[in-house]
Amino acid sequence: MKSKINIKAIIKLLRPKQWIKNSFVLAAIIFSGNFTKTGVFAKNIAVMLMFCIASSCVYILNDIIDVEKDRCHPKKKFRPIASGDVSVTLAVILGISLMVIVIIGTYKINPIALVIIVAYLILNILYSFKLKHIIIIDVMVITLGFVLRIECGSVVTDVSLSPWLILCTILLSLFLALNKRKSEIIELDSKSASHRKILEEYSVDLIDRMLNLVTPSILISYCLYTFSSVQSRSMMLTIPFIIYGIFRYEYLMTKNNAGGKPEDIFFKDKPFLINIVLWGLSILSIIYLTK
User: Where in the cell is it found (predicted)?
Assistant: First the structure.
C-alpha cells in the first residue's frame, strides 16, 4: 500500500466521468422553459453538483465493499482502492466528508431536495449491501436513481414534468442498466458469476428479451411526449435524433461491447456525441425560440 496521498488516484476514485448521469437533474428546467431564469438555473446547477458529490460517495462505498472482487477483475483491478493507490481508511474518511458536504449544501439550497438526495443515498447503500444481488430489482434500483435526479430538478425548479418524459427516463435508464449487465456477462464470460454473483442469474438471451420490450418503449414514450407537448409539431422533428441514438448505441454494443461504460460512448464516440448535441440544440431552439 502506498503511504503518500495520490491526488490523481483520489480524483479517479470519485469517477467524474460518470457525473454525466447527474445532468438528468436539468431535465425539469430545460423542458419547462425556465432555462433562461438565472436564479432557478443557479439552483439547478448547485443541486446537480450535490448529486455529483453524492454519487461519488456511492462509488467510494461500492469500491470499498467490492475491493476483493475488483482485484480479480481484468479492468476493475486498476481501480484506486483495489490497486492500493488509495487506502480503505482514506476512502472512508473521504466518503464521510463528502456526505457531510452534500447534506449541508443541499439543505441550504432546498430542504425538500435534501430529502430526495438522502433517499438516493439510502437507496444506494441498500443497493451496495443487498439489492444489487437481487435479479431485476438491481436494474430497477438504478432506474429509480435517475427518477430521483429528475424529481430533484423539478423541486428546485418548482414545476411538474410530463408523465411521458418521466417514463422516458425510466425506460432509458433501464436500457442503459440492462446493456451494462449484458456487457459484463460478455466481457467476463465464464468468470462473470465469480465477480458479480447476480450475473449468474442473467443471460445474454434473457437481457435481449428484456431489451426487446424496453427499446421500442423508449421511442413510443418519447413520441407520445412530443405529441402532448405545447410545441407538438416542432418537437416531433426531434424524434429522428432519438431513433439514431438508440440504433447507434445498439450498434456500438454489438460491435465493441461498449455498454459496460456508457460514459465512454457519450464522450468518445463522435457520431453519438454529435447526435446528442444536435438533439439538445434542437430542443432548446424549439422550446425557447418558438415562445
Answer: Membrane
Full DSSP string of 231-266: THHHHGGGHHHHHHHHHHHHHHHHHH-GGG-HHHHH
Give the Å distances, CA to CA, from 177 to 48, 52, 116, 142, 274.
21, 19, 21, 7, 23
Among residues 280, 177, 164, 262, the alpha carbon closest in space to that of 222 is found at 164
CA 47 to chain centre: 15
Give dist(CA 47, CA 64) in Å, integer. Answer: 26
pTM of the model: 0.89
DSSP 8-state class, residue 200? G
1-161 belongs to which homologous superfamily? UbiA prenyltransferase (1.10.357.140)
Handedness of CA 210, 255, 79, 19 (dihedral sign): negative
CA pair distance 171, 24, nearest whole angstrom: 13
Dist CA 16 CA 45 (whole Å): 16
pLDDT score for 42:
95
Q: Which pLDDT band, with edges at 50, 70 and 90, does 271 fall under?
A: very high
Q: Tell me, what's the pLDDT at 192?
A: 57
Please report the pLDDT score of residue 17 as a whole number.
87
What three-state secondary structure class fits 179?
Answer: helix
